[in-house]
Amino acid sequence: MLKVDNCTFSYSHRKEPVLKDFSLEISEGGVYGLLGSNGAGKSTLLYLISGLLTPSVGEVTLSGINTRLRRPETVSEIFIVPEEFDFPSMSLKKFIELNSPFYPKFSYEEMMDHLDLFDLTPDLNVNKLSMGQKKKVALSFAMATNTKILILDEPTNGLDIPGKTAFRRFISRGVSDERIFIISTHQVRDVAQLLDHVIMVDNSKVLFNKSVMEIQQHLKFIETLDRRLIDCALYASNSLGGSALILPNLDGNDTEINLELLFEFAHDDAETLNSVFTK
Fold first, then answer.
1. Based on C-alpha coordinates, what's the Rg of the chain?
2. 3-state DSSP percent of the chain in helix, strand and coil, to 5
3. d(CA 203, CA 62)
4. Which of 29, 46, 77, 170 has CA atoms 20 to 30 A from the CA of 63?
5. Which long-range contacts (CB under 8 A, 24 or more apart) does 92-101 make?
6. Cβ–Cβ < 8 Å for 62, 120
7. What confidence score (pLDDT) does residue 12 get?
């Protein structure tokens, strides 16, 4: 169990805290999408979970151990790929040699398989790669660590279309009942089909926190010009096909989740949205 318990965090240059009395629990197994507006504190939350930032109040624990203590039990089980990063000037083989010992379950064979999925070879100088290639190498190493928690901040930024397709295959084949993927992104269409769970945050609050199965059981997403449906929608927004609607799912048939529309609903009226799941 990963637990964020009443955490408050402020950067020195800001008067107001980025997160205040923020709490969240994530159970083992599954791909969690973390969605929120710019400035909502998503990246800060990811660094707190990783133990790379210290909350002024509260704590983050993995299996009861405070991640900020940076103990081997947590450091070896959490890996984060930030949105922006750089590699030192060295070969990929040297990078693997220096960093893989920190992760007892690291698999060199899996690393090679992941590189192959991205059409990369191991004979690279990691500091001389393009942004997209660096992201592919970082993702390949991250997956090969086999950590319990893998955190990806805007993982598809910098990837071309074939790279995004490979990324989706890459995540799909790494999913297990024990492993937690936390993906924070604004590119929701790149990851929508991967998610098992959706978490939406804003103003230090969890606006919405439901599994994909729950969402599909309770809500239906359609585009229509039918005024009767528009009038009885829980939420509606103009779209190219007329109006994009969120309706109660009364017939039990699943529809593809429109994450952008769902986020708009949560942002505008989280109370009404969440009430649908308590009826």
1. 20
2. 35, 30, 35
3. 24
4. 170
5. 92/122, 92/123, 92/124, 92/125, 92/126, 92/137, 93/122, 93/123, 95/126, 95/141, 96/141, 99/141, 100/144, 100/145
6. no
7. 81
End-to-end CA distance of the chain: 28
Q: Distance between CA 50 and CA 4 in Å, rounded?
A: 11
**Separation between Cα atoms, residue 181 and residue 80, nearest integer Å:** 10
Q: Are 25 and 1 in contact (CB under 8 A)?
A: yes
Per-residue tokens: 160: 């071309």
pTM: 0.93
Q: Which residues contact 38 (CB under 8 A, 6 or more apart)?
A: 186
The dihedrals phi and psi of 256, each to the nearest 5 degrees, come to -65, 135
What's the CA gap between 233 and 20, in Å, rounded? 34
State the alpha helices, DSSP H only, in 38-192: 42-50, 72-75, 92-99, 108-117, 131-144, 161-172, 188-191
Cβ atoms of residues 31 and 173 within 8 Å: no
Question: What are 78's strand-pairing partners?
Answer: 149
What is the Cα–Cα distance from 177 to 114, expressed in whole angstroms?
20
Tokens 């074939």 -> residue:
162
CA 225 to chain centre: 34
| 5 DSSP β-pair partners | 59
Q: Which residues of the chain fall short of a pLDDT of 50?
A: none
pLDDT at site 137: 94
pLDDT at position 175: 86
- Predicted confidence at residue 139, as pLDDT, reads 94
DSSP H or E segment with residue 266: helix 259-275
